[in-house]
Amino acid sequence: MAVLKQIDPTERPAGEAAPAMPRGGGAPRREEGRLPRIDAHGGETLAKGLGWFSIGLGVAQLVAPARLCRAIGIEDDGEATTLMRLVGVREVVAGVGLLASNNPAPWMWARVAGDAMDLSLLGVAMTDDDAQRGRVGAAMGVVGAITALDVVTATALGEGAAGRGASMHVTKAVTVRRPVEEVYGFWHDFENLPRFMTHLESVSADGERSHWVAKAPVGTVEWDAEVVEDRPNELIAWRSLPGARVENAGRVTFRPAPADQGTEVRVEMDANVPAGPLGAMVAKMFGEDPSVQVGDDLRRFKQVLEAGEVVRSEGTPEGARARRHLNQRPAQPLPAGE
Questions:
Q1: pTM for this structure?
Q2: Which of 38, 90, 128, 225 has its CA 20 to 30 A from that of 321?
């Protein structure tokens, strides 16, 4: 059997052209009116640098708030120095977060929010009769430039996280008390899959290719896939096509269970969850972690093949789409006395 290939979302599919270069060589031309773009690696490097900058600025604001107030043209009264120290604490916290976190994007966006606050405070200071408006205006210009850099860096980090995705490997198995031929035949008709995979809205097949529509925590996600290996009554292997929002590949194997007990069905899958690590976290919060999904799907698959439908109690008359019904567990005996 072929070994599953771990998905690399940064790999350019075979036959896909590289980004077009302008005539005369050189880097691709940036669209007018847009902030310059940097890649995820550059964003991480800038985030580290901005982290050290935040710590240095924050320490200065904590140690010499009055001097910094005078430097930017603000009267160094008690209220202004107290506010300067509070901003310094914020800068130090943001800097430590950027340097220590494995995912600096949220901390970068926190810096952007802090920049907006600083611009607002400087705007208020500009209206003070005692302020040196020339210095305050210069400070606003510097903060504005830093804000632009923070936005570019945060955007690059976010795009890099989304591009990498949250890679997951899932392996689950179940024994179905039906012959291999029947079990394989039912699964091979992909349009049957939404009958037991509750996260699927629909699957439409056209030869070796198929179109999938799945429910996400918010809205739906669609992608195309193709069968890459099909051995009747033994194995079906698939992979998503280039450009899929949900990159996935895997296989399902079928073999006779020992002692003529039916068919062992084993699913192996690699997937990149949309929206990177944040998407994986949200999915788990909604009870839709892929490993949980696959286990529940196989239990429902077993019920459909053995009983003809997903078995539901009177407590779940809403059917398989009821949120509280999605996360099943194996049947357990009732406690004594019930």
A1: 0.47
A2: 225
